[in-house]
Amino acid sequence: SRNPYVHVAVILRRAGLRIVGADEHAPAGFDEADLTGPIALVLGGEHKGLSEPVRARCDLLVSVPMRGRTPSLNVSVAAALLLYERVRQERAQQRRRAATIAPPPFEPDPD
Predict the structure, then answer these.
(1) What is the pTM of this model?
(2) Buried b (16+ CB within 10 A) or exposed e, 91-102
């Protein structure tokens, strides 16, 4: 493909990243998706969204759930929401891991 974004997606996947695309028609909201681990977030242009070739290369598509009459968000706002959710999930995962590491048992001083 001559689309440079498709080429970048292929390179990122070969480097071990999951490609997560933001798409208003995706069935899952970003808050329902696993955004932990090595990922590359892909957001389309405002009013256009992701191109079909880029969408096809995504490992996961997520939406930003909207209410009311607002059809979509400014791409920078959508990016901020996705990045915040990623950080939130990573921190929650770290806290769960830390909670499973039990402290050493208490041993009273033999004196």
Answers:
(1) 0.80
(2) eeeeeeeeeeee
- What does the pLDDT look like over 9-58, one tens digit per residue? 889 999 999 999 999 889 899 999 999 999 999 998 877 889 899 999 99
Helices (H) then strands (E): counts for the chain: 3, 3
Residue ranges with strand state E in the chain: 18-22, 39-43, 60-62
Instruction: Read off the amino acid at residue 65.
Output: P
Q: Do residues 54 and 21 touch, judged by C-beta distance below 8 A?
A: yes
The answer to whether the beta carbons of residues 40 and 17 sit under 8 Å apart is yes
- Name, in order, each residue with C-beta under 8 angstroms of 27's C-beta and a sequence gap of 6 or more: 61, 63
